[in-house]
Amino acid sequence: MKLAWILWLASVLPPQTADSLCLSTTVYLEARDQSVRGQKAVAEVALRRRDSGLWGNTVCDVVTARKQFAPTLVAPGTRLTNTEAWGEAVTVALDAERNWALPPGQRKEIVPGASHFAAHAIASPSWRTAYQVATIGDHTFYKVQSLKPRRT
C-alpha cells in the first residue's frame, strides 16, 4: 500500500475508522522497528495531542499536521510493505485507542505528559533540550509543553 492511498482512504472513511487508520499508519511509519512499548508510546503522544486540540480535532488532523509526524515527512509514494509490522501497528493503535478512551486516572500511560518525541539518529529538533520523559528504543519522549484536554 502507498501512503498516499492510505491517507486518501482515511479522508473518505467515517471519522472513528479514519482515526484508527491514521494512528496505525503513524505507528507503522514512526516505530515499526521498535518494541510494542515504544509503539504504544508513539500512539500515546498522538492521542494526547488530539485531546489538546492544538494540532487538530482528530487523530488524522494531528498526524498530518505539517512536519509533525511521519505521514507528512515521508514521500507520499512510500510503500508500507511489511505486513507483519502493519498488523502489529494496527493492534497497537486499536489497543492505544481503547486505553485512551478510559477516564484519565484509569489509563495506563507509558510516557506521562509527553507531547513530542524524536529519533535522534535522524532528527535534531529545536526542542530537544526540553524535559525528557523517557527513552524507549531509538526514541526519546519529551514534555515540551503541558497539553491539557480542550474543553468540550
Automatic annotation (TrEMBL):
It comes from Lysobacter arenosi. The keyword Kinase does not apply. Keywords: Hydrolase. InterPro entries: Cell_wall_hydrolase_SleB (IPR011105), SleB_dom1 (IPR042047). GO terms for molecular function: hydrolase activity. Residues 34-142 form the Cell wall hydrolase SleB domain. This is Cell wall hydrolase. Pfam families: Hydrolase_2 (PF07486).
